[in-house]
Amino acid sequence: MRIAFFATCLADTLFPEAAKATVRLLERLGHEVVFPFEQTCCGQMHINTGYQKEALPLVKRYAQTFDPYEVIVVPSGSCAGSIRHQHAMVASSYGDAGLAARSASVAARTYELSELLIDVLKVEDVGAYYPHRVTYHPTCHSLRMIRVGDKPLRLLRQVRGLDLVELPAAEQCCGFGGTFALKNAETSTAMLADKMTNIVSTGADVCTAGDTSCLMHIGGGLSRLRTGVRTVHLAEILASTESS
Amino acid sequence: MTTFLGMPATAPRGVGHLRGDQPFPRAAHDALDNSQLRRNLRHATTTIRGKSGRVIAELPDWQRLRDAGSAIKADVMSRLPSLLVELESRVIEAGGVVHWAADANEANEIVTGLVRRTGSERVIKVKSMATQEIGLNEALEDAGITPVETDLAELIVQLGDDKPSHILVPAIHRNRSEIREIFLRAMPGVDPALTDDPPVLAAAARRYLRETFLSTSVAVSGANFAIAETGTLGVVESEGNGRMCLTLPDTLITVMGIEKVLPTWRDLEVFLQLLPRASTGERMNPYTTMWTGVTPGDGPQNFHLVLLDNGRSAVLADTVGRQALHCIRCSACLNVCPVYERTGGHAYGSVYPGPIGAVLSPQLTGIEDNASLPYASSLCGACFDACPVKIDIPSMLVHLRNKAPHSPAERAAMAAAAYTMSRPRLYASAQRAAKMARIVGRRGRGLPPPLSGWTAGRDLPEFPEQTFRDWWARR
Fold first, then answer.
1. Does the model's pTM come out above 0.90?
2. Tens digit of pLDDT for each residue in A24-39?
3. Helix (H, G, I), strand (E, B), or coil: what is residue B99?
4. Which residues of A touch B427 (CB under 8 A)?
5. Which residues form the Lactate utilization protein B C-terminal domain (chain B) (predicted)?
6. Of B379, B414, B456, the CB nearest to A185
7. Per-domain boundaries in chain A
8. Cβ separation of A217 and B458 shorter than 8 Å?
């Protein structure tokens, strides 16, 4: 299958390993990955901070860039959520009915990674090997905005060598929330502290998730506390093989 | 010609409890520092959450009940004026008197005037968010009338000269030893040998309240629901204090937000299932009291209904924001909110705390007066899933943020980021420039505000050698 790849601004800029892993994984499964260079950012930060008008060109850019493709993948539940639930709303509230229709159409063809693998490509065992003790943080937007359910866990359970341990209070927010971490830094830090306590209690050496943003937050905290636990994007685990 | 009907756009300043003294982040700072408060809150919210989850799981049709509740509320909002007029006619036919209060000041004047005319110097109150919203207790005290809260938690808050911090459990921030101290200090006629054993504390409150119920001739209540087709008002509660207030006195004054009306008795069926399970985790609330006007020789002989607007018409006018008026005050959103769990109710500065408060208060007061509240959320969405009438709080928060005033610095930064990000070449060179700035700088520590909020508790990621797009271009 020919799959267009939306890397997200965060993965493109700060976590290219997660983006590269997505490409490696899909190519290993026999698919053609296309990366349209005109892509930038989904505009979620602008929309969620109260700058919908400013986000409008980003919404337009996403729709224009990805409209030619049948299937689009994004390694982020949060960006997928914004594209699916906010893009058409922003377009229509600024009076662009044509763009709203286009955005809705592109959004319907945009999948988060675990959705693409399980719902579209119908694969649970991606042939990965990852010999680590891993705990999974579901991330709020994957969980409640796009409802990926247990799809990431189903993928992880098929990974050879991987010891999957349950994260206590997994469904509680890590406290990132985009600009929430800046505007309410103290509350965000208190939420992060509890998340880190739960992660460390599992004895895992890796915490994974389907969003680089939450992982940046959790990873930044775990690194500051010198816990020794690493954060790794789901795509990187699924892309790993015995030879890598 | 004007269409302005004289209704105030927002709740007035200087009266009531919808505005805090300081913005949310600053108010949250104090709560985050109070480890006792955080322990009390965590214990209480975790307990209620568990209980509620268990009784909700018993119902096979919970999601359909939520759909029904949501649909009934949407219908009510679409024809609120006519339903209110219908309610008014039925209440009058049943022997009640109906008063319309445009805002907190008018409502307080109406109620104070009604109590004065009875000659009573004391009123008993059954928990009412609306009277807290308008600051009725303060208005009564100014008029020389003593209001006595009869809900146990409300009484604790009142005697402690404190503010409620939870919709359902107003004293959630207090533990039993704190409650014992409050009773010893402020409860008239309390036994000095009082212990902090919960049954002993409850017995002390019962003795005091019984005396008050039997010696007070005027009651002020709120209303959970009003049935337009019959003019019936209803209160649900757990302790029986409400039943006392609603049946014993000669005069009953009910203050109700205009959004509480329901078209028919059949609609009530849905909410009497949704409310107790979502709020207290009970299959059915212990006391449901319904009354229609007055009945000679039975119950209060004078009944007054005060219909309160106080900004609600303005909320109704916003087709996205009006969902906040669907709220049945169950507090389920508070009990699942990770922000509320750590900051408590007082940080929200309003009688309506938590996620629903973050969308309701700024709309009632006008966004300028509560501009920090729509940001008091990480948009995790737990509130939306918990809401028994499916209020989409996260989307409303985003909607209100878009209307909130922004600082010029933030606006400039956001505009610059959007400008860059909508131009792929500029974006790619900005990625490289950011990397250079970091290499030249101090690896991300000691950044200026607002980024300092991040580096206070977290490391920044290191910039990679190569962006993904550069890697892709060279592969």
1. yes
2. 999 999 999 999 999 9
3. strand
4. 9, 40-41
5. 402-475
6. B456
7. 2-120, 133-239
8. yes
